[in-house]
Amino acid sequence: MQLPESVPTRPQTVIGLMSGTSLDGLDIATSRFARTAEGGLDAELVAFRTEPFPPDLYARLEALYEADAREWVACAAAFSTWCGEAIAGMPADLVGFHGQTVFHAPHLGYTGQLASGAHLHAACGLPVVCDFRSLDVALGGQGAPLVPLADAWLYPEAEVAINLGGIANISTPEGSYDIVPCNLLLNRLAEREGEAFDRGGARAARGQRIPALADALAAVPYLQAPAPKSLGREEVDGLWWPLIERHAAAPTDDLLATVTAHIAREVAAAAQGRQALVTGGGAWNAALMRGLVNVLPASPELIDGKEAHAFALLAWLRVHGVPNTWSRVTGAGRDAVGGAVYGVWP
Questions:
Q1: Burial level of 87, CB count in 10 A (0-12/13-18/19+)?
Q2: Domains (ranges, CATH) in the chain?
Q3: Is 9 strand, coil or helix?
Q4: pTM: predicted TM-score of the whole model, two decimal places
Q5: pLDDT grade, residue 178 (50/70/90)?
Q6: Is the pLDDT of residue 173 over 90?
Q7: What is the pLDDT of residue 346?
Q8: Omega of the bond leading into 228 within 30 degrees of 0 (cis)
């Protein structure tokens, strides 16, 4: 892959902001990008941190799926202003703002990431790129996953790249797609015990597999559907969670053991034993990672910060007119330069 000569060779600093479907907090990556003399990409993840959501904001984000339009607009303003205040004063040229995914129904022609680029720009003073997915959906695509394009630019040494976030997805040479719900299921089960997540997979490791549930999960129709395909909360609530609820009387550890094994099985099947870069919160879950082989080493910053780093890159590509969505990944009618820009870009 080659960057056009119009892309500068002078390094530019981009802040990537990512908050996943599991609502772990706001991931903040500081990244630098430049075009090499040969037309390749020179990229560096300079720094990373996660800013926890204030309790009142977390509650509003958690309730958005059932909120009305007025609350959506009000929360978008409050959330984006808070994000801007979290990065105010940080030296950078640009911000890539993914927003908080609440709805995702590309088969109905829409996707919904809570974000107000205007409020974020007003709060931090930097140019902002947001709304990365809508153009791809308008072009007939899934609007997801978008990180595979960044993976191809950033990690050419990996045969496949896997992210174990709220939803597990994979980037492969032949295609990229969402594999299976991941932390969205595991965290919801851990909450039964008053815990935010199954730390290190300890509960799953203690539990016993529930065969009937394992069989039901393996038969979810989405798993057999061909790519391109993507998942949202709609599929989690409509396909996976009802199967788990049928076994609600079972011990939480047994449910976690069964669901964790299900996720590991589907992810391993997708990886097919190839050399894999594995990132995302699920990479800290030892019970989940035991099901994977041939995993490339990754730093803690990369494990937790890769998606924020990726959206920093997608924003940088956007302002330089380089496609940041690939139709071969999303199924759209064409590649596109997606994202809305707020503020003046030099």
A1: buried
A2: 12-146+307-342 (3.30.420.40), 158-295 (3.30.420.40)
A3: coil
A4: 0.87
A5: very high
A6: no
A7: 81
A8: yes
The SS3 call for residue 222 is: helix
Contacts of residue 331, Cβ cutoff 8 Å, sequence gap at least 6: 140, 141, 142, 228
Q: Which residue has the tokens 């997801």?
A: 144
* Angstrom distance (rounded) from CA 55 to CA 150: 32
As given in the structure block, the two tokens for residue 284 are 């800290």
Q: Residue 42: in which H helix or E strand, if any?
A: strand 41-51
The phi-psi region of residue 339 (left if phi > 0; otherwise alpha if psi is between -120 and 50; otherwise beta) is left
Q: Hey, what are 256's tokens?
A: 């976690």
The CA distance from 329 to 145, in Å, is 7
Of 86, 81, 80, 73, whose CA–CA distance to 29 is shortest? 86
Give the Cα separation of 283 and 5 in Å (integer). Answer: 37
Measured distance CA(283)–CA(199) in Å, rounded: 11
Confidence of residue 20 (pLDDT cuts 50, 70, 90): confident
| pLDDT, tens only, 41-70 | 999 999 999 999 999 999 999 999 999 999
Give the integer Cα–Cα distance in Å for 86 and 93. 16
Beta strands 110-114; 26-35: pairing state = unpaired
Amino acid 331 reads G
Helix (H) or strand (E) holding 134: helix 134-138
The residue among 49, 33, 116, 135 whose CA lies nearest residue 78 is: 116
Contact 130, 99 (CB under 8 A): yes
Q: What is the pLDDT of residues 147-159, one digit of tens each?
A: 889 999 999 889 9
